[in-house]
Write a structure and sequence with these properties.
heterodimer; A: alpha+beta; 54% helix; 20% strand; B: mainly alpha
């Protein structure tokens, strides 16, 4: 926080959609693979089904991920894939965070 | 969530996805064990020179690669279904690097396999001239390796599929050696079976047996390690919230 009490612009500019820890984890996982099944995403992020659904819906509404639904026999299987926008947003978020962090040796 | 934690999440996903594309583990270990056992059985004094016309034996050896494929598929279905499908990111650099040598290896092995079978048939006919009316290419046995070629257009699509295909063809070659051993074992009159190929081919053949045993042992170790790694990945995943 700056001396005047106002948040630096760089912090205010952070993408709130990506900044939320659960969504950040989801996007990180999705960016590491081409397509990820719901079940795996749930286990690796440690989120409950409801929570994961709500976050993925939000990310989908923003255009950061897309849902893929296929049938394996009669069982519907839901998977997700990150979009180009999502990948760009995640990259930008990392860049912004890095620029906010103090340089090595400087507190 | 720290940067290290995020990196760990990404790494875990990549490892899981890599395993998902192969789904080997125990299947690799099983393939190695089957190769070792079959060659050992073929080399054992009791079985050497077993009559090839004992059809079940012949069928078993010829269809072992398919049996292994079925077991691999079942393993993937029952053991490694895990937590759903995670498709690995296509890595173009990796694919470019690997593509040509895997395809080259597959083609080389396929040629080796076909030449081996023709050589086998040749020796077989020397040993059993009464089967001459079935001489190549009419002999049904010669057409069987073509079964291994059938899936080619569907399999050679991606790097992992090409890898599986190369392994399959290598397996075929490996199963062919015991077949050869069964056919030209102790019952073969001296200087007859080997005369068609000469000492050089015999040395190459014996070297191949050694390679198979080594490959089998390594496959068992690698497969087991891969299986353990998969279990470790599952353990590393957080419990359900």
């Amino acid at each position: 926080m700056s001396k005047t009490g106002a948040l630096p612009k760089a912090i205010l500019d952070l993408d709130r959609i990506v900044h939320e820890p659960a969504r950040l984890a989801i996007l990180t996982v999705l960016a590491s693979a081409e397509e990820v099944a719901f079940l795996f995403l749930q286990r690796i992020t440690g989120l409950s089904k409801g929570n994961l659904s709500s976050h993925t819906q939000k990310l989908e509404a923003t255009g950061y991920l897309e849902t893929v639904k296929v049938f394996q026999g009669r069982i519907p299987v839901t998977s997700f894939r990150i979009t180009e926008d999502g990948r760009t947003a995640l990259r930008l978020y990392h860049q912004q965070l890095r620029s906010l962090l103090p340089k090595e040796g400087k507190p | 969530m720290t940067t290290a934690e995020l990196e760990a999440l990404g790494a875990l996903t990549r490892e899981y996805a890599a395993f998902q594309s192969r789904k080997s583990g125990l299947a690799t270990a099983l393939g190695g064990l089957m190769a070792i056992l079959l060659v050992l059985a073929a080399l054992s004094p009791n079985l050497m020179g077993a009559d090839l016309l004992q059809r079940p034996l012949l069928h078993y050896i010829l269809f072992v690669p398919f049996l292994w494929l079925v077991l691999k598929w079942l393993g993937g279905l029952l053991l490694y279904r895990g937590l759903g499908r995670v498709k690995a990111m296509p890595d173009e650099r990796y694919e470019r690097r690997r593509w040509f040598w895997i395809l080259g290896l597959a083609l080389f092995l396929m040629a080796y396999l076909l030449v081996g079978l023709y050589a086998f048939m040749n020796g077989f006919l020397i040993q059993k001239p009464s089967f001459a009316p079935l001489s190549p290419p009419a002999a049904w046995i010669l057409w069987l390796p073509l079964l291994y070629l059938l899936p080619t257009p569907w399999l050679i699509r991606g790097i992992e599929e090409a890898r599986v295909y190369a392994v399959l063809v290598a397996q075929c070659m490996i199963w062919l050696v015991p077949l050869f051993l069964f056919a030209f074992g102790a019952r073969t009159p001296p200087n007859q079976a080997w005369s068609m190929s000469g000492h050089l081919a015999m040395t190459a053949f014996l070297a191949l047996i050694l390679v198979i045993q080594t490959w089998g042992a390594l496959a068992m170790i690698r497969g087991w390690k891969e299986h353990r790694k998969y279990l470790a990945i599952l353990r590393a995943l957080p419990r359900e919230a």
